[in-house]
Amino acid sequence: MEAKLADATRLFQKFKAAFQQNDLETCSNLLSQLKVKLTEFPALPPLYKQTPTAIQELLLAMDIFEHAIVLSVKMEDQDAFERHFLQVKPFYTDTRGLIPQSQEEYSILGLNLLRLLVQNRIAEFHTELELLPSEAHEHPCIKHAVELEQSFMEGAYNRVLSARQAVPHETYVYFMDLLAKTVRDEIAGCSEKAYDFLTVADAKKILMFSTDRELQEYATEEHPDWEIRNGCVYFQKVKDSATCKEIPSLQLINQTLGYATELERIV
Amino acid sequence: MVVRALSPRVHHEVGVPREKVAPASSDRGASGSNSAVAGLSQHGDGSTMTVVSTASGLLAMLQEHHPALKLHALNNLNAFVDHFWPEVSTNISAIESLYEDETFDQRQLAALVASKVFYYLGELNDSLIYALGAGPLFDVTEESEYVQTLVAKCIDEYIHLNVKASESIEESPPLDPRLVAIVEKMLDKCMADGKFQQAVGIALECRRLDKLEEAITKSENIPSLLTYTLRLSQTFVTKREFRQGVLRLLVRIYQSQPSPDYLSICQCLMFLDDSSTVAAVLDGLIKGDKVDALSAYQVAFDLFENEYQLFLLQVRDRLPEARVSTPVDVAASGPPAAASVATPAQPVAVTADAHSAGDSGPTSMDTSEEPSERTPLLAHEPQHVEPALSTSPAQPVLDPSRLAEDGAESSELSTYAQRLARLKGILSGETPINLTLQFLYSNNRSDLLILKTIKQTVELRNCRVCHSATIYSNALMHAGTTVDTFLRDNLDWLSRATNWAKFSATAGLGVIHRGHLQQGRSLMAPYLPQNGTGGASPYSEGGALYALGLIHANHGEGIKQFLLESLRNTNNEVIQHGACLGLGLAALGTADEEIYEDVKNVLYTDSAVAGEAAGIAMGLLMVGTASEKAGEMLAYAHETQHEKIIRGLALGIALVVYGQEEEADTLIEQMTRDQDPILRYGGMYALALAYRGTANNSAIRRLLHFAVSDVSDDVRRTAVLALGFVLCSEPEQTPRIVSLLSESYNAHVRYGAAMAVGISCAGTASSEAISLLEPLTSDAVDFVRQGALIAMAMVLMQTTEARDSHVGAFRRQLEKIILDKHEDTMSKMGAILAQGVLDAGGRNVTIMLQSRSGHDRMTAVVGMAVFSQFWYWYPLVYFISLSFAPTAFIGLNDELRMPRFDFISDIRPSVFAYPPSIAPPTATSAVKLPTAVLSTSARAKARQKKEAAGKGPALGASSPGRADVGSSGEGTADYNESGSSGKDGTAMEVEAGPEKKVAEPNSEVLNNPARVVPAQEKYIKFKEDSRYVPVKRSRPSGFVLLKDLEPTEPVELVSTDSPVAAGAPSTANGSATAATANAPPSALGSDDWDPQPPEPFEYVP
């Protein structure tokens, strides 16, 4: 076990070195090796075996996963981010009694909140939020995410966009960029419901596009059902009014006849 | 939007509660996404407790690219799925896709995890599919709930598929081999664990004969398992075809046993209708030693009990002929009755013949030559009985010589031929019927006072229906006992029966003399139609033919020809009616083509009265053959205009499909969809008979459907009634099923419910049945009361007040109804009939629709079905006598004689005693004793009663002869002799007097042959030190062969009263009665207060 641990630690050193040099490819190679190695440690979740080196194992694994998260942000891989975050989460919750709190915990958690916001998974966002202790809310990373969400919900999209300038951590930049797109989607969704059509100029303004071309691309890519003609964007196709439901007359007649025969048969 | 925006704000403003929760962060996890975590997965011991709060990490790991990581995740998920299935279920598609990924080498693990998740989700079908995919990882031996549930599901699925595959005509896709593997694994496990009964059950349900065989042969206790399987196959295997497969397998296994159980083998073979094998087995047995021969006899008796005439005859005919080379064998190989079959009745029969010939009295043969000597019983005056006494002295003279002759014969006869003859005697029914007749005659305990009371009240009111009902009642009370005292005593009264009433009065004699095969024809001779003399009333002639049928019911070999000729020689529809019914009964189920054609000709005359009987007779002839004749009958039913004929045919068709189960479904469907309510009504009977005693769910469902949905009251009534037949194997079910129907607003449905309970619960005295019937006996509608009273009587047959207190109340109720002059005729008739059923057969019979071995008694079921037609045609009441079975223990030795043999009934005698006689108070004090059950005093009492009826001397005088028969060596100490005279009989009672004060004993000793009612069977114990041991241990009733442990000792036989003594008078009547005899029919019809039937007319619709 000791040997394995040392082995993994060595590998992790190599990983960190590559990480420092921003050699992302090497990093991800090393990371996948590391993860396989981690499966051999019984002290890790969900087994939590009481091995003599349990603390070291846990710390190492947590460290690896935290790095992996940052790496996935750098590689702009949201799926990997989610995977790694879910794997690191037990270290923050379940092993509280075993290992000290990680330095990076809140920034990682904040990052995750931001990701949820970007992916417009508001319900999960609040679930995560609820799980946090109150002092965590004071942490700048968490606070940042919470404030963003509030602005987002209130519809103060300009505040959301301007918040990019005040990120608490460099890794947040990536998600802040993505957030702009989320905001746009949200606006597009609302516009669909609110208007039958918009002039291209208005649509450009609302959706924060600088050129017609960008709008055109966005429309064809994200909302193929939109129609742009005569300098207007038409949404009405979306609102295909639900045809009013027909009365199931035949069925009703059958039922009534059925009741009548049943009544006849009453013993 | 607004709602979503609100929630965080709320939390911000109300920060306080959050503080409180904060420290318990791990608990928070629980309250979050998954709630299943609480208190689970505690690793380590107390100090550092780490709780797994979520499986999301593992689920995330499934998305990793590296297979090792996926495997790791799967392994852990498999371990934690029991707690985290809600979380896993959201990601089930990931696991499913892993399973479907051909390149992933741990697909089976993925399948297992998926299966478990689906199991927790309650999606057992999906779960099963994945469990099958898991292959060896799905361990059937695991004790978890998951595995057990899935294995059960698996077996259910397999059964379902297998049954479907075996039932569909076209080739179905082969079963999933993995499914088969699991079921087989499970079966193997059952067997390895020694749970063979389970294995047998599963194998039967799966319809896997190979596994069934394996299970049986592997077990340690093969015989008991075979018995178990046989029982299961009768009760649970609803598919006829598969059941036959099971039976064939059972026979094979039985035969491979070192000491085969021939009783069971032959039962199986009978179900398979394999008469030749049975014959071979029996032949093999009688070639063996004495014990083998005994079991051959026992087999024959058991087969006889199932009353499957056609089969019995086939078996008999397939047995090899006895060699005729030795002259003495001629007697044995002659008539099937086999003169050398040394039944105790035989000598007497010979005596009677010899005597009557000597006396030049009319026998059945010479009556035609001397018509003037014919003296019908119904015209007898009591003193005409006297000449009969002269038969008695002849007996002692003849009997010893006969016995000596017999002894000489037996030494010369090869043992084999002798045994063969005996066996044939049993199979043809001669021996058992004779023994039964003797038993019923000598143990007759019917109470004439009851009849007298009925008669008196009926006389007061000149009620035609009640008059006939009393005659029916008398016939039932004395069914098979040959005691016609009541009729003899009340000839004047009897002669008031005219037209059809006369028909039934004459036919009633057939019920009373049922089974009196040798004398039957001579008994009825005075009434039978004669060539050339057209003087007799067609009603009594028809009745006499019907009576002959009843006497020979199901054993009509000897009488068939005579009945057939009578049918051919007449054009009178009343005689045709009687002859058809008689033929149907005598040739029951023989599928005799010649008779069928003749009966069909009668049908085609399109006469309503004769046609109805012809329809029924055709059904009776073809019972259970499912022959295509049914189609022919159906076609004619559509053609004819007479409702009576249609009804007869409808019932006939129903009889043809008797016992066919699913195979009859096409015809049943055709009938139940017919426009004519009478044919639908026949369809109900067809359902009842095709599924008799199977408790088949689909049949019950269909019947219930018709019971509530048909527009015709007749059909509804019959549908409910038919439930009684379908459920007759499970009487405890019936009251529950029909309880709602018994409260129907429709009186016909209520009537049907009452009869259904009566039919299926007959003789059980079940408390549910009684409580259901009780309110119906005081129903507002008269015919419902009638049905309920009859049904109640059927349920309470042979029940004593010690067992069920309702009996007394019911008897009082009957009496009250009969005496009440304001009561409706219908219910009064019901009460009178009920009285007859309640005290049927001298109280020594009960209604048994299933034989003791649990098979259906065809004759009984058929009889009951036709009986239930009495709604339309009263003379059919007599058919109920076919369902009567004697409740007797008759022990026989290897010569088929009754040795002296005692056994114990381990219960207070009063619990199963005869009901107390209702004799006048002065006489009752002695009679009402519990000691009445001791067969000595029972016998004495029976005699005493006959004495009271004015017949004592005849019996007393005939007894010396009987004593001689009984004691071939030493017979002086025979208690029977002492008990046989009337004087000693009273002496016994005097002795019995003091016992009244003594506490009732807890057990009693019964002597062979004894009355053992079905409920009493479990209390019967055989003595340890007894000289005789029964061959079959299973049920101590019916005919039981006894093994003699001391064969060298002289055999002490029980002497028996022979019914012939009572039956003789009618044959041996003196010439003194010639005057009356000349005009018997006119005597009957002299004071004719019955209106003439309307002139025959053509029905023009």
Automatic annotation (TrEMBL), chain A:
Domain PCI: start-end pairs: 79-251
InterPro entries assigned to the protein according to its UniProt record, in alphabetical order: 26S_Psome_Rpn12, CSN8_PSD8_EIF3K, PCI_dom
Keywords: Proteasome
Cellular component terms per the entry's GO annotation: proteasome complex
Pfam short name (any one): CSN8_PSD8_EIF3K
Coiled-coil stretches: none
Domain of life: Eukaryota
Protein family (similarity comment): Belongs to the proteasome subunit S14 family.
Descriptive protein name: PCI domain-containing protein
Source organism per UniProt: Riccia sorocarpa
From TrEMBL, chain B:
GO MF, one example: enzyme regulator activity
Matches recorded under Gene3D superfamilies: Leucine-rich Repeat Variant (1.25.10.10)
Domain 26S proteasome regulatory subunit RPN2 C-terminal intervals: 887-1054
Annotated GO CC locations: proteasome regulatory particle, base subcomplex
Biased composition (Pro residues): 1091-1101
Region ranges (Disordered): 14-46, 349-410, 940-1008, 1056-1101
Listed Low complexity bias regions: 1061-1083
Keyword Transmembrane recorded: yes
All residue ranges annotated as the 26S proteasome non-ATPase regulatory subunit 1/RPN2 N-terminal domain in the record: 54-328
Regions crossing the membrane: 871-892
One Gene Ontology term from the biological process aspect of the record: regulation of protein catabolic process
InterPro entries: 26S_Psome_Rpn2, ARM-like, ARM-type_fold, Proteasome/cyclosome_rpt, PSMD1_RPN2_N, RPN2_C
Keyword annotations of the record: Acetylation, Isopeptide bond, Membrane, Phosphoprotein, Proteasome, Repeat, Transmembrane, Transmembrane helix, Ubl conjugation
Family in the record: Belongs to the proteasome subunit S1 family.
The protein's role, per its UniProt record: Acts as a regulatory subunit of the 26 proteasome which is involved in the ATP-dependent degradation of ubiquitinated proteins.
Subunit structure: Component of the 19S regulatory particle (RP/PA700) base subcomplex of the 26S proteasome. The 26S proteasome is composed of a core protease (CP), known as the 20S proteasome, capped at one or both ends by the 19S regulatory particle (RP/PA700). The RP/PA700 complex is composed of at least 17 different subunits in two subcomplexes, the base and the lid, which form the portions proximal and distal to the 20S proteolytic core, respectively.
The name this protein goes by in its record: 26S proteasome non-ATPase regulatory subunit 1 homolog
